[in-house]
Amino acid sequence: MVAVQNGILGSARLSLAVSAGKLAGHTGRLLRVGGGTSLPGMVARALDPDVLRKMVGSTRARKLVVTGSNGKTTTCRMIAALAGAAGQRVFQNRTGSNLIQGITSVAVNGATIGGRLDTDLLIFETDEATMRLAVPEVKPDAIVVTNIFRDQLDRFGELYSVAASLEAMIGELPAESSAILNADDPLIASFAPEAKARRIYFGVRSEQVGAAVPEHAADTIRCVRCQHDLEYRKVYISHLGAYRCPNCGYERPPIDVAVTHAELSGTASTVELETPAGPLRLHLPLPGLHNIYNAAAAVAAAVGLGLDLSEAAAALADLRPAFGRLEEITAGERNVVLGFVKNPISYNTTLRTVLTRPGRKHVLAAHSNTVVDGEDFAWLWDVDLEELTPQLASLVVSGTKAEEVAMRFKYAGVDEPSIQVVPDRPAALEAALQNVESGGTLYILSGYTPTHELRRAMVQRGWVAPFWEE
Amino acid sequence: MAQPPLRIGHLYAEEMNIYGDRGNILTLSKRAGWRGIDVRVEPIGRGPSPDLAEYDLLFWGGGQDRDQELVFADANEHKLASIKEAVAQGSVVLAVCGGYQLLGAYYVTAERQRLPGLGLVDLHTEPGARRNIGNVLIDVPGLGLEPPTLVGFENHSGRTYLGANVEPLGRVVKGAGNNGKDGTEGVRAGNIFGTYLHGSLLPKNPHFADLLILRALARRAPTELAPLDMSVELDAHQALVRRLTG
């Protein structure tokens, strides 16, 4: 009976799970409730908890898992673009639905009704806390770790426990797989020195960018081996940089995929990279040093997968920002820049990019305390909102945590009566747009759930496509 | 007569800053500054200590276990005598989360490592099986706070136990507090205050911030604080109270 169940009944069950998952996705899209991201996986797993393991286990496609605090979604999109340009067929969770349901949806959406995955590459963006569920099921050929910053400590526990579990997974990768690691992150660079997997380090070695001293929100500034303060020759973002421990000599490892030259503008960058496959010059239509890191991680992943990089420049040149990553939206006579922010580093990075733009800024800032957004907003106090205050033209705060956001801006020096508190998201969007002159720009800085809600309000106005149609 | 400046010493600002402790310092500085009081905040790192009795208020926050190990060792080696002198001279101490654990006799980490504390207050901290994570509401009678409540967010695996003659900062209404068992949260001993509440603590508890400022200033000369509009802060406070009791 057991054998039969694993045979005919097992495959019937898989087929049922995949069909039901696909149907749920279609229905969700028809009803415009946003079905393509996590619903198919959720339905399929309910009918067959082994659905992902079975599909992924029987495919010839290679599997890549991308995790880390920041940059996962954009890095995944860049890897997909590079793979596509190299002639690979790719399935991925494009919209950042990175818990186990969203990861299962990648396979469900891409599979035939029988549960067969006929493709070349599966890219799974995976939340750090979901890694321990996803990695045993997916058995990846490569793991990319972008960076580790403080991110929703109420969900993940402490930084070092997140790091320890990631390190253990890297340590268990088989010899024919690759670990793509950020050399500039002292914690990640130290991972699993005895690992059997091929290790590919990416990082920045450019003199044009970066600063001399770590910023105050830096997380790991002491040596991971001996706890002595690290010395930085160059700091790029938070604790990412060229470091060395004066006490034990631990230092940034040699970089395999290195950014050697970087020129940034407010909306784009041009970078030169050294790679084991030769030099690359890329134009990235996305702003900020963080996107340069994402590109370096993506190229390193492509190197790990042995992809042909001859079309890499063309593949990345027409990349659009991922959902809510400073996404530019035309809202009738006005413009909206939608910035999804989730921790001090992503907020500060987004803020600095916004501040490079000319003129005073109309801002809508929104946070909510749902399960995915977290309850703990202590981190808002580590964001350098003081730098935005002198450049504010108007401010609307929204979300279920609107009062808390208002309070943060008050202590950042914004005159209290000038803060418009509008908890309802569509009403806040309306109010904020009314502050903006024709031809002007509204900057939205918001957490996960409000970003979705505000974007949905703009979808309903016909200003932007639903994200699952991208 | 010109108001003397309020001097705040932020101990271990680099090492113990993981839970948005900057919000506490910002709240103290702004609320004093809005009243025309000159504020000086000075970070104090590891190594030989300046004269801490020069400071009207000493603050230290929470860190990760790895960071706490360093800080506990440094505090005992370099800061203990100076902190004791400051306390004797009436300086206010606010210690949050990991910093709170440092006030006691010892802290046993999740890895069962025993870190000797400063022993300023009769309390100690043992490891717990799981982390206490979530919103907290406590009743704080006897300090003249209006409303007589504090709200915050806790995230700690340590279980803190108070000695028999030690007074908690408050009584838990919602959340775990010191150890999840005896209904106590934090500690108060004269001008020393310890608590697990962050999130950050002071922005959402402006009345408590003012109490600390008042006591810190009173060390130098009898003082009154001009009232400030704190409707935004108290809205945030009350919104959380309603959610936790509703």
Characterize the structure shown.
The complex is a heterodimer of chains A (470) and B (246). In chain A, helix 2 crosses helix 5. Chain A starts with a helix and ends in a 10-residue tail after the last helix. Chain A is of the alpha/beta class and 470 residues long. Chain A is 36% helix and 21% strand. In chain A, the strands form 3 sheets. In chain A, strands 2-3-1-4-5-6-9-10-11 form a 9-stranded mixed sheet, with helices on both faces. A 6-stranded mixed sheet of chain A has the order 12-13-17-14-15-16, with helices on both faces. Chain A has a two-stranded antiparallel ribbon with strand order 7-8. Chain A is built from 15 helices and 17 strands. Chain A folds into 2 domains: 312 residues, 3-Layer(aba) Sandwich (UDP-N-acetylmuramoyl-L-alanine:D-glutamate ligase), CATH 3.40.1190.10; 145 residues, Mur ligase, C-terminal domain (Protein-Tyrosine Phosphatase, Chain A, Alpha-Beta Complex). Helix content of chain B is 28%, strand content 29%. Chain B is built from 5 helices and 12 strands. A 6-stranded mixed sheet of chain B has the order 2-1-3-4-12-11. Chain B has a 4-stranded antiparallel sheet with strand order 8-7-9-10. Chain B is globular. The model of chain B has no long low-confidence stretch (mean pLDDT 93).
